[in-house]
Design a protein that fits this description.
Blueprint lengths: L5 E5 L5 H13 L4 E5 L6 H11 L6 E7 L4 H8 L4 E6 L7 H8 L8 E2 L4 H16 L3 H16 L1
Helix pairs in contact: 1-5, 2-3, 5-6
Amino acid sequence: MSQPLAAVVMGSKSDASVMQECLDTLDRLGIRHESHVMSAHRQPEKVREFAQSARERGIEVIIAGAGMSAALPGVLASWTDLPVIGVPLAAGELRGLDALLSIAQMPPGVPVACMAVGSAGARNAALLAAEILGLKHKEIRRACEDYRRELASG
Ligand code: RP5
């Protein structure tokens, strides 16, 4: 079995149903991926170890979904220079506005690409990951082109 190219990380099991849209889209595009639940505030050491070993394990892009203060994408980005795509999730009283601002407002120097809140963002994270991977992997670029053609015909 070939190594995964994309890693999908979420801050809690409670994020899984929304992040399924991301996993389904990666499947649809034929992108090998792995997925993990790990919390930036409850398991900071696990997050560091994951991020620091990701590149050497063959991962080329990381997608991270989190709600509330949503530190996970930024913390991952602080430990790796792989591209990190953040998905803000509507987990708390502020319905995702908190996560959206947290992920979008990274200070200069450590970028995180911020998607829309919720399932739209989860799907777009997979599509952006595909476009990044498509720069190197021709079959993924072709899958992106097919996806766009289907969008246009629908
Ligand atoms: C974040 O806090 C998670 O990403 C989740 O969206 C939110 C709530 O987590 P749980 O209390 O449901 O584990 O860390």
